[in-house]
């Protein structure tokens, strides 16, 4: 039972098929690949999110985020110094607040000397040349892990906005260079802008978490700030439905109209289409947050020997550049900065 050799499809040569266009020509050597490379990742693209705990000279590993630690303010300063040496432009700080400071309304966010404000002061004192971005949201401060004031099962928009705007002023007073509201309440960007301007902080910028999607990829972060056991229900009444793209454009448009200086898309890799749409539509500084779950997926696969962790890290970050990002918030920041240097 002999299988006959399949017949060639036609009589055309490859040159006839391609019209002599040989797209592999420029890929033939490292030098020519470098010459035609369209997008580049540099240290200037990196924002490093760090987790803070109270105390001194202590760092706690975060099991769901191998290689990431919660740092006491003094160690956060050390890392800020390291970041500055590496040329990383900015840090984003996220506090894990002691349970005794958490309540139903997240009132501790209004303490001028709370953990987030103390660490900002400490970093700006020691390393004034590095940018500090503070997340202004209630979730590290509430006993229910929601980003808003929760009453009768409802996240109350306008009261939350008032509180978040007041907190933003305290963060600016502590030295924050950029305020990043991540709660997705309606009207928060405009309210924060007004509050900052009214208190003499007109030079403090706003990076809006303009399109923040209800996502499973935030899991490890919630462990990091200690909200995973607290959160009841989900955040679908305020974060975007991850099925939607037009709505994301409307959110970004609204935030820009209210005064956002920069846009952010979050999570990152599953939302490259949104990044590209926003960049094309608005031509504004556009950032992606490669969130905790994206980081941990790469780390987990690499730890199992299933992928090359360093290569996957670099490929994922370059993908953000290709999609139109001006920068990326990534837990890989110091590692990438070291690699780019080497
Ligand atoms: C909430 C907030 C979240 C993240 C940063 N700020 C998401 C959430 O808990 O719902 C996620 C960051 C990450 O996953 O790396 N204000």
Automatic annotation (TrEMBL):
GO terms for molecular function: porphobilinogen synthase activity; zinc ion binding. Its EC number is 4.2.1.24. It catalyses: 2 5-aminolevulinate = porphobilinogen + 2 H2O + H(+). Keywords: Heme biosynthesis, Lyase, Magnesium, Metal-binding, Porphyrin biosynthesis. It comes from the Bacteria. Gene3D superfamilies: Aldolase class I (3.20.20.70). Pfam families: ALAD (PF00490). GO terms for biological process: protoporphyrinogen IX biosynthetic process. GO terms for cellular component: cytosol. It is an enzyme of class 4 (lyase). The active site is at residues 212, 266. Mg(2+) binds at residue 251. SUPFAM superfamilies: Aldolase. Pathway: Porphyrin-containing compound metabolism; protoporphyrin-IX biosynthesis; coproporphyrinogen-III from 5-aminolevulinate: step 1/4. Belongs to the ALAD family. Homooctamer. This is Delta-aminolevulinic acid dehydratase. It comes from Neomesorhizobium albiziae.
């Amino acid at each position: 039972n002999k299988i006959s050799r399949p017949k060639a499809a036609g009589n055309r040569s490859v040159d006839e098929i391609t019209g002599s266009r040989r797209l592999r020509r420029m890929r033939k050597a490292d030098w020519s690949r470098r010459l035609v490379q369209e997008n580049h990742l540099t240290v200037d693209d990196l924002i490093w999110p760090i987790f803070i705990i109270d105390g001194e000279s202590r760092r706690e590993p975060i099991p769901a985020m191998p290689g990431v630690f919660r740092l006491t303010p003094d160690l956060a300063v050390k890392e800020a110094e390291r970041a500055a040496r590496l040329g990383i432009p900015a840090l984003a700080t996220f506090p894990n607040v002691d349970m005794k400071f958490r309540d139903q309304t997240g009132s501790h966010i209004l303490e001028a000397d709370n953990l987030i404000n103390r660490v900002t002061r400490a970093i700006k004192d020691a390393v004034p040349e590095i940018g500090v971005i503070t997340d202004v949201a209630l979730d590290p401060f509430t006993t229910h892990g929601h980003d808003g004031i929760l009453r009768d099962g409802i996240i109350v928009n306008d009261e939350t906005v008032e509180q978040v705007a007041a907190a933003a002023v305290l963060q600016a007073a502590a030295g924050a260079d950029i305020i990043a509201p991540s709660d997705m309440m309606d009207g928060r960007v405009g309210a924060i802008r007004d509050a900052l301007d009214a208190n003499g902080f007109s030079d403090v910028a706003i990076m809006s978490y303009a399109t923040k999607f209800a996502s499973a990829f935030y899991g490890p972060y919630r462990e990091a700030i200690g909200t995973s056991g607290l959160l009841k229900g989900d955040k679908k009444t305020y974060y975007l439905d991850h099925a939607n793209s037009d709505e994301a454009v409307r959110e970004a448009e609204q935030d820009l109209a209210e005064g956002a200086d920069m846009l952010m898309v979050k999570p990152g890799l599953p939302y490259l289409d949104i990044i590209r749409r926003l960049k094309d539509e608005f031509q504004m500084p556009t950032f992606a947050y490669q969130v905790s779950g994206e980081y941990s997926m790469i780390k987990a696969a690499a730890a199992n020997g299933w992928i090359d962790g360093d290569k996957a890290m670099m490929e994922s970050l370059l993908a953000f550049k290709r999609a139109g990002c001006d920068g990326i918030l990534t837990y890989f920041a110091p590692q990438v900065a070291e690699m780019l240097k080497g």
